[in-house]
Specification:
By secondary structure, the protein is α/β, with parallel strands linked by helices. Helix content is about 35%, strand content about 15%. The protein has one domain (about 15-215): TIM Barrel (Alpha-Beta Barrel), CATH 3.20.20. It has nine helices and eight strands. Helix 1 crosses helix 2.
């Protein structure tokens, strides 16, 4: 659900991450949005656990984990440093581990996950929508969204999508615009969309949360 990074980031430096964070905020402003209106969720799947305090020192307060076990272990060590979201593919059998440890699950997209959330509720969830209809992407079809939201046992506060890999950020615009349209139709405020390669386009189309890795960590 986050950047498709090929290798782990090691030895992160506070000043590098801080400067990158400021650059991201500047680009959000250049895209026509108030930076304070767009949450920056640091995708930490490829960050070494020992480097997580560096993110806090650099000014990041919200992190997103892709793997349930990593969420559990990192939360035990650094739970008070951050607000935690879950941004990876949600396996229904992992709902019990994930739900009590996060502010928000970005990736609810199956009936089995809804059933598990009845027993192990999360504070809020986002429904993952496959707006592109891509066979290799998770998410429910747009025409199932209303009934899926109606059956959720926990509050649905927004939507998330991960469009197909594109050569140009502009190629993802129509998918982001469609997600924003769906959110508006259902009165939902949160829009989790955009990663390091396309977050500026996502911001222009209404993203309220961007999930960033490379943009924050690369030297």
């Amino acid at each position: 659900m986050a950047d498709g990074l090929s290798a782990a980031f090691r030895g992160l430096r506070t000043e590098v991450v801080h400067d990158n964070l400021e650059r991201v905020r500047e680009r959000i402003a250049a895209a026509g949005r108030e930076p304070a209106d767009v949450e920056i969720c640091a995708a930490v799947k490829y960050v070494q656990p020992d480097d997580l305090p560096v993110l806090a020192e650099a000014g990041l307060t919200l992190v997103g984990e892709n793997r349930a076990q990593s969420l559990v272990s990192a939360g035990e060590r650094y739970g008070d440093l951050f607000t935690w979201d879950f941004i990876g593919t949600l396996q229904s059998r992992k709902v019990r581990d994930v739900a009590p440890r996060v502010r928000l699950i970005h990736s609810v997209a199956s009936d089995s996950a809804l059933r598990r959330l009845e027993r192990h509720p999360a504070p809020e969830i986002l429904v993952e929508v496959n707006v592109a209809g891509a066979a290799d992407k998770a998410g429910i079809a747009p025409d199932r969204l209303t009934e899926f939201i109606d059956r959720s046992p926990v509050p649905v506060s927004g939507l998330m999508t991960m469009p197909p890999l594109a050569e140009r950020p502009e190629d993802s615009r129509s998918h982001f615009a469609r997600l924003a349209e769906l959110a508006g139709e259902h009165g939902l405020e949160r829009l989790s969309m955009g990663t390091s390669q396309d977050y500026e386009v996502a911001v222009q189309e209404g993203a309220t949360i961007v999930r960033l890795g490379t943009a924050l960590y690369s030297r």
